[in-house]
Specification:
Layout: H1 16-30, E1 38-39, H2 41-48, H3 52-64, E2 68-71, E3 75-78, H4 83-104, H5 110-128, H6 132-148, H7 153-170, H8 177-195, H9 199-224
Antiparallel strand pairs: 1-3, 2-3
Amino acid sequence: MKQQILNFKIKKQPHLRKIVYERLKDAILTGAIPKGTKLYESRIAEETGISRTPVREALHALERELLITAIDKVGYQIVDTDIEDLEEISVIRKTVETLALKKAIDRIGADDINRLEANLKRAEKALREYKSDLFIQLDAEFHQILCALSHSERLMRMADTLRKEMHRFRNRTKLDRELAAESLKYHQKIVSFLKMKDYRSARRALNAHIDHAKRKTQKEFENSNGIT
């Protein structure tokens, strides 16, 4: 029995190409579609209940983004990630998120700080109870709130994509309690600096946070792949 790639049907409506593209991209970046899975235009069209044209256009868009590559002129395969990708993602992520932080620093109010502190409290509880899925969700939410404070849709989209690309590495490893605890400490530092509207210190804490996560993720990634 063949494995179904996408477990949803799409009703006929405008912008089907965009919907298919976004669903496929999200499934690839979050690891819902496993590494090595082959994607076929006809099969995806059949599973989702739409014509092949928007599926073809979505696949072409994903190929241009280097998330998939054509194979045998009949299908596509998900492009695997390596250490160089991790390094590049981390560098770009620092650029995007520090720019969002810069745009946000003068706009941050008491309600925004309250949202961030509420996130921290929930994350502390999730870590204490070792609810890994919830902690990962709250970790992403923290960065989403930060980027949303910039009021830049472009930066928000870019940051979200980069976080999901980073998640492709973490899908291969279990949640590291030490990394989670350190991430929470960095988040707490960032919020404390935001309260003082100290952009330079907040930026340093954010960059140190991303660098620390990169080093830890790289080590876990290498161990899980038998790299010495």
